[in-house]
Every structure is written in structure tokens, then in C-alpha cells.
Design a protein that fits this description.
Length: 251
């Protein structure tokens, strides 16, 4: 089965409504219909009801940056995957390193979020990746596979083929220091083999695995050309129409 290529822009905690609209409409203008490519914008939660209009009728998908592990209830300040679905989100990030590090989210909690999203028919983009220290002490593979395993532990078997993964080495996020195409592809292959081991051949082979960490117009093509890199999760460069459009064109 051909894997879907996904190019997703994680806007993080940036952009006010007018700026978001300008960016989304600018992207929309240059969007050419490429079969097998999914372009996703991921604004902060309060922009999502507005963004539903911005992506209308252009095939662009809407994603959220985070969600609750519950569908409703007494969880002040949280956002329900049910609400995200009602506003048209088809993707949601879980386990971004900023959530793991700044907000102390555990592997188990991230796995629960993935399961709740799948129950609402939203595709979780499960982010994994190592710190510089872990890479330098050769602990990166154990770290990444542990993060992947923990998610499969929380997700029901029917959900095993419904997840997307993003390898984002922490040392490459927002630093301008991208993993080399070889470094990234190697980890993607290891992740895929692990998914095959846990969830079977078909789930592993059909899982889209994105790369994130200083992806930009200048390196998008070489990353996308790798055998096991099925898309990009873009932070900084997704905030400028010109840069994000060039990344999309690189596919
Ligand atoms: P960056 O962020 O492209 O700015 O490095 C990527 C991310 O955090 O998802």
C-alpha cells in the first residue's frame, strides 16, 4: 500500500487571527493538487474554529497541537478530541517534545491521548525523538523505541494502523541544525521495523513517518526523497507563506 506523504505546519503558539488567515489563504492560492500529498496546518487551539473556514474547499487538512486524554468531564483548561472533531480537525499532534519536556507529559499519557483521538477518528501524529545528550551517549534508539512501544501499549489493536509518527530529534528543533538525510532515514527505518515487530507487516509498511526539526525549503527535497521519510513536520518555516509553499513544492 502506498504511504501517504504528509507535510504539516506546526504553528506552535504563534499568529493572531488575521495573521493566521493571511498565511492560510496565501498557502491555499499556491496549492496544486498533488495526489498522495496531504497538507496540514496546525494552529493553536483557539484559532481552530476560524481555521475551519480557511481550509475550506482546498483539500488542506486541519490539525490540533494537543488534546485531552478524555472526551469530556471535569478537566478545566483541556480540549476534547470530540470538540476538535466538531471543528473539522482530522489530525492532532501528541507527544511533541515541548509537551513532554515543558509540561512533563509521560509516555503513558501520550498513548492515552492517541487512543482517545483514534476513537474520534482523528489521526494522532505521535512525535518521538532524542536529546543531544541521548544521541551522544548512544541511547537514542532505546529512547525512541520506548516512546513508540508506550503508545502501542495504550492503543487498541484496531488503532495500530491508524497512527502517523514524526521523528523529531530535540537537538534539531528550532535550532537550524537539521538531522542529515542519512541520519533521519536510518531512524525512520528503525522505527518502521519496530512497528512491524509490534503491529505486523501491514501496519508498519503503511505507517507514514514524518521528519521534523529545522525542515526548510533548502533541505525539504533531499529529506522527502529518502525511502522511509514520508513527509515533514515543519515549525518555524511553516509560518511564512513563501517558505512553506516551497516545502510543499519540493514533493
Ligand atoms: P522547527 O520545529 O521546524 O522550527 O525546528 C519543528 C517542530 O517542533 O515540530
Amino acid at each position: 500500500m502506498a504511504r501517504k506523504t504528509i507535510i504539516a505546519g506546526n504553528w506552535k503558539m504563534n499568529l493572531l487571527p488575521l495573521q493566521g488567515e493571511e498565511l492560510a489563504l496565501g498557502l491555499k492560492e499556491g496549492l496544486v493538487n498533488k495526489p498522495n500529498l496531504e497538507v496540514v496546518i496546525i494552529p493553536q487551539t483557539a484559532l481552530i474554529p476560524l481555521a475551519q473556514d480557511w481550509v475550506m474547499d482546498c483539500g488542506m487538512q486541519l490539525g490540533a497541537q494537543n488534546c485531552s486524554n478524555n472526551l469530556s468531564g471535569a478537566y478545566t483548561g483541556e480540549n476534547s478530541p470530540e470538540l476538535l472533531r466538531a471543528f473539522g480537525c482530522t489530525y492532532c499532534l501528541v507527544g511533541h517534545s515541548e509537551r513532554r519536556e515543558i509540561f512533563n507529559e509521560s509516555n503513558e499519557f501520550i498513548g492515552q491521548k492517541a487512543q482517545t483521538l483514534i476513537s474520534m477518528n482523528i489521526t494522532p501524529i505521535v512525535c518521538v525523538g532524542e536529546s543531544l545528550e541521548e544521541r551522544e551517549s548512544n541511547k537514542h534508539i532505546d529512547k525512541i523505541l520506548g516512546q513508540i512501544q508506550a503508545v502501542f501499549d495504550q492503543v487498541d489493536q484496531e488503532g495500530w494502523s491508524k497512527m502517523v509518527f514524526a521523528y523529531e530529534p530535540i537537538w534539531a528543533i528550532g535550532t537550524g541544525k537539521t538531522a542529515s538525510k542519512e541520519q533521519a532515514n536510518e531512524i525512520h527505518q528503525i522505527i518502521r521495523q519496530h512497528i512491524i515487530k509490534i503491529a505486523g507487516e501491514s501496519a508498519g509498511k503503511s505507517a507514514s513517518i514524518l521528519y521534523g526539526g529545522s525542515a526548510k525549503p533548502g533541505n525539504a527535497k533531499e529529506l522527502l526523497n529518502q525511502s522511509d521519510i514520508d513527509g515533514l513536520l515543519v515549525g518555524g518555516a511553516s509560518l511564512k507563506v513563501e517558505d512553506f509553499s516551497k516545502i510543499i513544492e519540493a514533493f
